[in-house]
Design brief:
Elements lengths: L1 E10 L2 E7 L1 H6 L5 E5 L7 E9 L4 E7 L3 H7 L6 E2 L1 E6 L10 H5 L3 E6 L3 H13 L5 E6 L8 H5 L5 E5 L6 E2 L2 H11 L6 E5 L2 H14 L2 E5 L15 E4 L2 E4 H4 L2 E3 L5 H9 L2 H19 L4
Parallel strand pairs: 8-9, 8-12, 9-10, 10-11, 12-13
Antiparallel strand pairs: 1-2, 1-6, 2-5, 3-4, 3-7, 4-5, 13-16, 14-15
The chain binds nicotinamide-adenine-dinucleotide and FE2/S2 (inorganic) cluster.
The site of FE2/S2 (inorganic) cluster has 13 residues, from α8.
Length: 291
Amino acid sequence: MFKIVEKKNLAPNIFSMDILAPRVAESAMPGQFVIVIADEEGERVPLTICDYDKEKGTVTIVVQSMGCSTKKMAKFNEGDYFKDFVGPLGQPSEYVNEDIDKLRNEKYLFVAGGVGAAPVFPQVRWFHENGIDVDVIVGAKNKEMIILEDKIKGVSGNLYIATDDGSYGFNGMVTGLIEELVKKEGKHYDKVVAIGPMIMMKFVSKLTEELGIDTIVSLNPIMVDGTGMCGACRVTVGDETKFACVDGPEFDGHLVDFDEALKRQAQYKNEECKKNEDYECKCKQRKGGVN
Ligand code: NAD
Ligand code: FES
């Protein structure tokens, strides 16, 4: 059992939880993920790691309550326990094994979309701890949906905000802001790391290919069981077949077949909707006193 030691609301339907899991915290690296099982009836939910504190033995996850499992997790509070918390899983980001002097000569731009800001934070902090400033773009639907702004600002070189409705920062999507920085302001980037919804990663990769900037994406959103067994995260990268949960989650965005991955991501939509409807229905019955 794994204790929730702190819970914070970050935005509507988005919250963070610090989980006491010293062994996971001890070996967590940027780019990795965990699997959370809420209770005896819970399904496996793969979630990217937002933060880890080796001294306190805690790992921070950020959850957007959308489906039945994440809605169930949203009901947990400080002092409650998750049944299972497994990790760290997946391969760490490639740069953690690169020569620091080489990295110092490269300019990185991190692009976070919505909840994707959560896994971007430990990556940007890793660069900061190694004395390297990176630029970061955080994009969201509106000002209210921007998360972790202060945390990311504290460890990044320049932080740029984009909102789809223009309520804060650049008026438009992250791709519009990348174009503005590179084409209008003449910024030079050697590498882009894009983490967010699949559709965002697809279009960021398309743009950076045109701009000639190497790009890494994180395919966490297509995972289901996170163990290499269900096959849901199978993806074509160049001429190879990869499993996001075992070989990734990070891949070269210019080689990922996004159209195939997006199709595969949608294949369980009906089952997910049905499960969500059943869950909502059960909750209503409980509220109304019906068993
Ligand atoms: P969202 O739909 O609000 O999109 C966030 C931002 O992405 C937008 O503000 C926009 O700037 C950009 N974007 C969206 N569509 C785009 C397009 N067509 N072209 C260019 N840019 C586009 O995001 P959300 O509602 O927070 O969605 C969260 C998603 O993030 C979920 O699907 C979740 O699976 C995913 N996620 C991914 C990871 C990961 O590791 N890749 C981690 C956590 C969450
Ligand atoms: Fe099931 Fe990767 S998520 S095989």
